[in-house]
Specification:
The structure holds two protein chains of two kinds. In chain A, 0% of the residues lie in helices and 53% in strands. By secondary structure, chain B is mainly beta. Helix content of chain B is 0%, strand content 58%. In chain B, the strands form two sheets. In chain B, strands 2, 4, 5, 6, 9, 10 and 11 form a seven-stranded mixed beta sheet that branches. The chains are: A mainly beta, B mainly beta.
């Protein structure tokens, strides 16, 4: 019940296209869903996060879509750029628990 | 990397030897974490600490121990390293005052031969 399943494992998108990464969870107690971005040789860094009281959150070209009934959430990167090439992790947490459960990661490559 | 350093950054060791990785933070955050990152498995929590001398196990704690004698330092020890512990190890910190956000260090790449 603590798992977060992420797909796809790898994704190649052309510059200017839309990148979509999906995550699914089982534990209905999760109430915080962040996405982390990791560049090669670096530690992950928070990109964007959502709580289940909203169905969508947008920050610049990055949007999280959240479907509470399906227990799924996704990251959309609009107008994808080569600089977006990185590994992306979804995660989930219970508020106040100060512990994150991470998905398996998606290696995104944006071709110029 | 949010005032987090990890040492060493790279290490090669032999099976059966003890290894200690250090995480040092200058942010005075209460919570500290050790993760390992492996292809296909994402980030998996090894151990975490919720205060000085207060630690708890994560999902992959077998073969690892931790200690936290000061707020700023969190040590991860592999008592007798095995090849299956070859991985990249990340330290992270968080604080309730900043919600659930975790800030990660630069990582330590460990190779066990």
């Amino acid at each position: 019940q603590q798992q977060v399943k992420q797909s796809p494992q790898s994704l190649i998108v052309q510059k200017g296209g839309i990148s979509i990464i999906n995550c699914a969870y089982e534990n209905t107690a999760f109430d915080y869903f962040p996405w982390y971005q990791q560049f090669p040789g670096k530690g992950p860094a928070l990109l964007i996060a959502i709580r289940p009281d909203v169905s969508e959150k947008k920050e610049g070209r990055f949007t999280i879509s959240f479907n509470k009934s399906a227990k799924q959430f996704s990251l959309h990167i609009m107008d994808s750029q080569p600089g977006d090439s990185a590994t992306y992790f979804c995660a989930a947490s219970i508020q106040g628990a100060q512990k994150l459960v991470f998905g398996q990661g998606t290696r995104l490559t944006i071709n110029p | 990397d949010a005032g987090i350093t990890q040492s060493p950054r790279h290490k090669v060791t032999e099976t059966g030897t003890p290894v200690t990785l250090r995480c040092h933070q200058t942010e005075n955050h209460r919570y500290m974490y050790w993760y390992r990152q492996d292809p296909g498995h994402g980030l998996r929590l090894i151990h975490y600490s919720y205060g000085v001398k207060d630690t708890d196990k994560g999902e992959v704690s077998d073969g690892y121990s931790v200690s936290r004698s000061k707020t700023e330092d969190f040590l991860l020890t592999l008592e007798s390293a095995t090849s299956s512990q070859t991985s990249v190890y990340f330290c992270a910190i968080s604080d309730r005052g900043q919600g659930e956000t975790q800030y990660f260090g630069p990582g330590t790449r460990l190779l066990v031969l």
